UniProtKB/TrEMBL annotation, chain A:
SUPFAM superfamilies associated with the record: Folate-binding domain (SSF103025)
Gene3D superfamilies: Heterotetrameric sarcosine oxidase (3.30.70.1520), Probable tRNA modification gtpase trme, domain 1 (3.30.1360.120)
UniProt-recorded name of the protein: Sarcosine oxidase subunit gamma
Record-linked InterPro entries: SoxG, TrmE/GcvT-like
Transmembrane segments: none
Organism field: Roseobacter sinensis
UniProtKB/TrEMBL annotation, chain B:
Record's protein name: Sarcosine oxidase subunit delta
Natural source organism: Roseobacter sinensis
Pfam families to which the protein is assigned, alphabetical: SoxD
Superkingdom of the organism of origin: Bacteria
Length: 196, 109
């Protein structure tokens, strides 16, 4: 039996303006389907324990949840150990529906950026307004981190979760640690203001 | 900086989150078309100073294609609209007429 490991073995870096850490293994299922279809809504809700979120938002439970990726795509989060079983349930529920569900857990890497200056670190890397009144827990954003795609949400007031491709894990970790270098604070009061 | 709003997911971002897809509303002449039609489909493009219509893809975001109307000199974006259309919507053309009276693009005014 193989032993599943994360892309970077759970690296972290604390002595920075925000704490950077690779997140533990996370079950992730990509679901592509017509999200307005009630059969799809029902199946996704049953699998994730959360309602289908609207554009740009995420519905998270304790360990499971649904992220809105595009008008025909959801990212389902669940405990890593339950992903096979969850996928089977989802596929069974959608057997008569035009839909595609795939386990992508091992094709992704995931990071957390934590601390009062986490917004500053993220703001250096993405073309996104991360002021507290523009981006908050409950929102979900797919964007670019320097040169690679990333999906971002906040799991708490000062904690970002990032999902990227596994092959780009080292690049993203390096980006984050450089953007969080000691002495690289952006705002003297530590409060990220709105852009406009 | 060119700032676009994706009509599919509603996200507004600067152009590096998107990817340009060239001129909008081309007719794809394929098998059965005349040489002239095929040649014009492959090679002939507008190159306006001012109002222009383009295809863009929200490549780092929702991944969907859409259309954008913008000014090539000022980078002002007049509006974005769905990919599933063969010509710019009337209300957008009206908006452009207010901002750039007398504009033309192909046979549109
Ligand atoms: Zn979009």
């Amino acid at each position: 039996m193989s032993e599943p490991v994360t892309a970077l073995g759970g690296v972290s870096s604390d002595a920075r303006i925000a704490a950077i850490a690779e997140a533990p293994l996370q079950g992730m299922i990509t679901l592509r389907a017509d999200l307005s279809d009630s059969a799809v809504k029902k199946a996704a809700k049953a699998a994730a324990g959360a309602d289908v979120p609207g554009p740009g938002t995420v519905h998270l439970g304790d360990e499971s949840g649904l992220c809105w990726m595009s008008p025909d795509e959801l990212l389902l989060l669940c405990p890593y150990a339950e992903v096979t079983e969850t996928l089977e349930r989802l596929q069974k529920a959608l057997v008569k529906t035009h839909a595609l569900a795939v386990n992508v857990s091992d094709a992704r890497a995931s990071f957390t950026v934590t601390g009062p200056r986490a917004r500053e670190v993220m703001g250096k890397l993405c073309p996104v307004d991360f002021a507290p009144d523009r981006f908050a827990p409950g929102m979900f954003r797919r964007t670019r981190m320097a040169q690679v795609p990333a999906a971002i949400w906040m799991s708490a007031d000062e904690t970002f979760r990032i999902v990227c491709f596994r092959s780009q894990a080292q690049y993203v970790f390096d980006l984050l640690t450089v953007a969080a270098q000691p002495g690289s604070e952006v705002f003297s009061d530590g409060k990220t203001p709105a852009l406009a | 900086m060119l700032i676009l709003t994706c009509p599919v997911c509603g996200v507004t971002a600067e152009e590096t989150e998107f990817h340009g897809g060239g001129e909008a509303h081309l007719t794809r002449h394929g098998p059965g078309s005349s040489d002239d039609e095929f040649q014009s489909y492959l090679f002939m493009r507008e190159n306006p100073r001012g109002v222009h219509f383009e295809r863009w893809r929200h490549v780092y975001g929702c991944g969907k294609w859409f259309h954008a109307a913008r000014c090539t000199t000022t980078l002002e974006v007049f509006g974005t609209y769905p990919a599933q259309t063969t010509e710019p919507p009337k209300d957008l053309r009206k908006t452009i007429s207010q901002k750039r009276p007398g504009w033309t693009w192909r046979d549109l005014t």
